[in-house]
Amino acid sequence: MKNYYPLSFLILFISSFFYSQIKPLVINNNTNYSVVGRINIYSTNNCNDYYIFIPADFIIMPNSSVTYNKYENTNLSNPPITQYLLNGPNIISYNDPVLASNGYIANNTDWEQFQFQTIDSNNIAIDTFKVGVFRSNCDRKTFSTHYGTYSTAEWVIHPTYHEVNIY
Prior knowledge:
Elements: H1 5-16, E1 25-29, E2 34-43, E3 49-51, E4 64-68, E5 83-86, E6 90-93, H2 104-108, E7 109-119, E8 125-132, E9 145-147, E10 152-157, E11 162-166
Parallel strand pairs: 1-11
Antiparallel strand pairs: 1-4, 2-3, 2-7, 5-6, 7-8, 9-10, 10-11
């Protein structure tokens, strides 16, 4: 009988590098309004939230897109995310070890929700949205599609990424 232990260990070791932050998040703002908001991430093991803190100047400009691939490199996106607020007053930087690809949070969470407003050129709120992944077991009040007065937002789960479309 062959010993497959070394092969099993190698497969487990290699796969651990690919198991982090389940899917990237793409936000497409297809409106003439700016978008200001907050993104939430959630635990894939239970219903505990980990909130991503987005700086006050976090704005997605009209008719533009942003992609956040990994928590540890959100500072490279435009607009960047450089700080995370974790379960209350704990603010950590994007390069904190728990957010690294092999860190605890990166290995046990995924994007869940985007709460935001569309604002006009005078910084007046036009519509308010809360879209994301519906998880009935966690008593979430999130919609995959949300209709505003002047715009619509949808959260789409693709096999390899999450996508928010704002029309």
